[in-house]
Amino acid sequence: MYDVSGTAPVNVTNKMLLKQLNALEKEMIVYKAPQEKHVITVFTDITCGYCHKLHEQMADYNALGITVRYLAFPRQGLDSDAEKEMKAIWCAKDKNKAFDDVMAGKSVAPASCDVDIADHYALGVQLGVSGTPAVVLSNGTLVPGYQPPKDMKEFLDEHQKMTSGK
């Protein structure tokens, strides 16, 4: 849905979804770049090969100034084993360590908390996520699939130029 009352059309749906995305910020597993130039939100699944590949290269993304924020998107559904394990990760005391461990093939102890993976999943569906990894840029643009660190950096730099008019 667009608001055309101003000088340029504004994607109202996108703005609403970005609000929902930012509302989940406290639940995200974040790998912050020391010299942050870009922030991406990645909908991930622990059973996804390309999600593993992306995570294995986290140091490279971060070194290029890309902060990665994860939300859960269990592709097999909300009642799957992957969803239960992802819930345990998101409820762990140290979410980053739990996520690193699972992505390295280790298991994580079951845990429960107020995090509702269904909220992550529903937002992903609303944003158009149909597979993982799915990258959401700060303006709500969805970039499906895996991008190697250097390609992602080039894409983000170019996207930033286009959207800022520079």
From TrEMBL:
<dbReference type="InterPro" id="IPR012336">
    <property type="entry name" value="Thioredoxin-like_fold"/>
</dbReference>
<keyword id="KW-0732">Signal</keyword>
<protein>
    <recommendedName>
        <fullName>Thiol:disulfide interchange protein</fullName>
    </recommendedName>
</protein>
<dbReference type="Pfam" id="PF13098">
    <property type="entry name" value="Thioredoxin_2"/>
</dbReference>
<comment type="subunit">
    <text>Homodimer.</text>
</comment>
<keyword id="KW-0676">Redox-active center</keyword>
<feature type="domain" description="Thioredoxin">
    <location>
        <begin position="1"/>
        <end position="161"/>
    </location>
</feature>
<comment type="function">
    <text>Required for disulfide bond formation in some periplasmic proteins. Acts by transferring its disulfide bond to other proteins and is reduced in the process.</text>
</comment>
<dbReference type="InterPro" id="IPR017937">
    <property type="entry name" value="Thioredoxin_CS"/>
</dbReference>
<dbReference type="InterPro" id="IPR033954">
    <property type="entry name" value="DiS-bond_Isoase_DsbC/G"/>
</dbReference>
<dbReference type="GO" id="GO:0042597">
    <property type="term" value="C:periplasmic space"/>
</dbReference>
<keyword id="KW-1015">Disulfide bond</keyword>
<dbReference type="InterPro" id="IPR013766">
    <property type="entry name" value="Thioredoxin_domain"/>
</dbReference>
<dbReference type="InterPro" id="IPR051470">
    <property type="entry name" value="Thiol:disulfide_interchange"/>
</dbReference>
<keyword id="KW-0574">Periplasm</keyword>
<dbReference type="InterPro" id="IPR036249">
    <property type="entry name" value="Thioredoxin-like_sf"/>
</dbReference>
<comment type="similarity">
    <text>Belongs to the thioredoxin family. DsbC subfamily.</text>
</comment>
<dbReference type="GO" id="GO:0015036">
    <property type="term" value="F:disulfide oxidoreductase activity"/>
</dbReference>
